[in-house]
Write a structure and sequence with these properties.
Layout lengths: L1 E2 L4 H5 L9 E2 L2 H7 L8 E5 L4 E4 L3 E3 L3 E3 L4 E2 L23 H12 L5 E6 L9 H16 L4 E6 L8 H11 L4 E4 L4 E5 L4 E4 L3 E3 L2 E4 L3 E2 L2 H5 L12 E2 L4 E2 L5 E3 L6 H4 L6 H19 L8 E9 L5 E11 L4 E11 L5 H19 L1
Parallel strand pairs: 6-18, 8-9, 8-14, 9-10
Antiparallel strand pairs: 1-2, 3-4, 4-5, 7-15, 11-12, 12-13, 16-17, 19-20, 20-21
Helix pairs in contact: 4-5
The structure holds flavin-adenine dinucleotide.
The site of flavin-adenine dinucleotide has 26 residues, from α1, α8 and β19.
Length: 356
């Protein structure tokens, strides 16, 4: 099944369910004859041009990888993977999303929720702030004595800052306590505490979103440059700079090589289209077309209203990177219920685009 990260914050905010963000891949198989192999890739050998899974070995002529992000807990003292039940990240949609949603729903009125945000770059820059807004919105309507403490490793809100700040000031002044420059360095599972260099925060419900990097699979395959965390690609076609006939798209790619695009699903989808066309051009010995990409990130600031940021991108020949088309980007001027509707329509449109 495909479980969507977009709209997963709505599940945590109790306005959608896991069923609403869960889809099957069968239409792709039936309509387009795509052969799916649901298996774990354990190794990629770019010299022999093979992908090794837990069960079989697949030869390739062209390989596209889009493995997303690896959650990196190495800077958090006391971390053990068994603690993900106490400190779920819910940063890959699935059982941790359902667990966090359940924890929020079951929390007593007067409880404390603590959310930690890692240093940028991480998957979906506005994602944590949307999550905070939706939990606060639920708390305000259902458990008004509760509090939400935000420990942000960044110096300020990293995306749509003014719009989020305004919404929080207008709607959740008594609920959200925002602490910038507050990186979580340790946890205490027995006491339910998130620990920064300055504070110990005891909470009833924790959401620890750790730092992120490209998965080890890509490091082991020699697709990540030494001392870098993300995969370097040619921004014209998303081919790897490290191995021939390998293409890397999505969150795993480095902004240093691609240009300043956010790690979003919309961008990953755009990259997939550019890369797909480039591969067709290679196979048929056609001229590759210059990339054109688009991104809109919608975020809800309450169960009723949303905000958005959009940009159209092109390939900048002088920079050799993806760059914003001048005059073709911007923020919504304020929050509105229309943007909430747009957000839901956008999600349905991209699910449709990907899966039907
Ligand atoms: C809470 C939240 C809200 C978000 N909201 C939005 C939004 O509103 N709009 C938006 O544009 N983006 C949003 N995003 C970001 C978006 O989800 C990601 O940018 C997008 O999923 C990136 O796609 P990807 O293909 O790089 O990675 P993924 O979607 O994570 O896909 C990677 C896939 O590779 C598989 N994989 C990894 N390693 C292996 C292996 N070794 N073997 C086999 N399979 C493997 C994984 O299982 C996964 O299916 C949100 C993210 C979060 C966390």
């Amino acid at each position: 099944m495909f479980r969507s990260c977009p709209i997963s914050n709505w599940v945590i905010g109790q306005i959608k369910t896991m069923d609403d963000i869960t889809f099957s891949y069968t239409k792709l198989t039936r309509r387009y004859g795509i052969k799916f192999l649901h298996d774990n890739v354990s190794h990629i050998d770019t010299k022999k041009k093979v992908v090794v899974t837990d069960n079989i070995t697949v030869n390739y002529d062209k390989l596209v990888v889009s493995p997303g992000v690896e959650l990196d807990y190495s800077s958090i003292e006391n971390w053990d993977s068994s603690y993900s039940d106490v400190f779920p990240a819910a940063w890959k949609a699935g059982k941790e999303t359902a667990l966090l949603a359940k924890n929020i729903k079951n929390m007593h009125n007067g409880g404390v929720v603590a959310i930690s945000i890692p240093l940028s770059p991480y998957r979906c820059p506005p994602g944590p702030y949307e999550r905070i807004s939706l939990i606060a919105s639920y708390i305000k309507d259902n458990k008004p004595k509760s509090k939400l403490i935000v420990l942000d490793a960044n110096q300020k809100i990293v995306s749509k800052g003014k719009l989020f700040k305004k919404a929080w000031d207008d709607k959740y002044k008594d609920i959200i306590e925002y602490r910038a420059d507050s990186k979580v360095v340790e946890i205490s599972p027995s006491e339910n505490k998130l620990i920064t260099d300055f504070d110990d925060v005891k909470c009833d419900v924790a959401n620890l979103i750790p730092p992120q990097k490209a998965p080890k699979l890509l490091v082991d395959a020699g697709l990540i440059k030494e001392k870098e965390l993300w995969a370097s690609v040619n921004a014209y076609d998303f081919s790897s700079t490290m191995a021939k006939d390998v293409f890397i798209i999505g969150d795993s790619t480095s902004q240093i090589s691609v240009g300043k695009v956010p790690k979003s699903g919309y961008v990953a989808n755009s990259m997939g289209k550019v890369c797909g066309l480039a591969i067709i051009a290679e196979l048929y010995e056609l001229k590759k077309l210059p990339p054109s990409m688009i991104n809109t990130c919608f975020s809800l600031v309450s169960s009723e209203e949303g905000i958005s940021v959009s940009a159209v991108y092109h390939y900048d020949e002088s920079l050799k990177k993806i760059a914003v088309v001048k005059g073709a980007s911007g923020l919504s001027p304020k929050s509105s219920s229309i943007i909430k509707d747009n957000a839901w329509d956008w999600a349905n449109a991209i699910w449709n685009d990907m899966l039907t």
